[in-house]
Amino acid sequence: MNREQNEERQAEIAQTPGEMLRAAREQLGYSQKDIANRLRLRLSVINDIEDNRFEQAQLATFTRGYVRSYAKYVGVDEKSILALLDQYGHAQPQEQEMQSFSRRTKREAHDSRIMGLTWILAAVFLGLTAVWWWQSLQVQPSTHKESTVKAEVSAPANEQDSSYVSTLEENGAATVTKADTSPSSAAVAQPESANTSSQSNTSASSETSASSESATSNQSVANQADTSVTEAKPVDVQTPAAEETVAVVPDLQLTFSGDCWIDIKDANGKRLETGIKKAGDKLDLDGKAPFKIVLGAPGVVKMNYQGQPVDLSKYPAGRVARFKLPQ
């Protein structure tokens, strides 16, 4: 009687998904830690699966994927174990397939694109700098020529001023000479002294008027020369400034401080990334907004959308976060 009860009990135990996986693991000589390291899952996740604790928040969404990977690794029939899992109320319309954890090829291609864009921007910046330097060299000879023209314009003006002074001196000397000779003429011809004196005064007045007109004319020429010099001012030349390089910011940036399963799609339904990420991993993603995002452990994720941080503190730790960006 006791033997039959033990056999029935063992049959019931063997019918649970967790016990089937545990028995297969122990038969192969693996520990729970070995399975966790191989599947890249936390040890607590393996323990919950073997204890049939499928209602845990961290397992509820991805139970079928975890159990299938576990069964495949220990050699248990996947269909049988999933059928038992369905009896526990975990049948899902769409199965969450475990994706490859290796994204090295995709990351390298993305990094090479970024490096190529960086080199292009650097070449453009160097080209603009060379153009600016060349234009600066062209401006310096132009400024030197303008200074030379200004000096040449100033020289005739100075010559005109000297000519004006010489003319005044000559006119003054002529006036003095005529004034000195007038008394001697009066001494020689006394009867005509009054007429001679009158003529001398008239001549002196005429010469003074002529000198004044000559001085006015010379002054006008000097003023015109000064005006032409003043108008010949150097023209300011604006040199183009080098254009600033624009840093390319990805639409989504994610940094992980712990293990986290993610699934990200863009507005076209294209899956940009999926799978489990380890602590220290970083992701840069581009696509068409809005993005559909699923985070298994939002507490270990830091996210930026178009360069701005996204607040994930409103999602409880240990619970799956589903949201769209922009919201």
Automatic annotation (TrEMBL):
Coiled-coil intervals: none
PROSITE patterns tied to this protein: HTH_CROC1 (PS50943)
InterPro entries, A to Z: Bact_Cytoskel_RodZ, Cro/C1-type_HTH, Lambda_DNA-bd_dom_sf, RodZ-like_C
Domain HTH cro/C1-type: 21-50
Residue span of region Disordered: 170-238
Regions crossing the membrane: 114-134
Name used for this protein in its record: Cytoskeleton protein RodZ
Source species of the chain: Photobacterium damselae
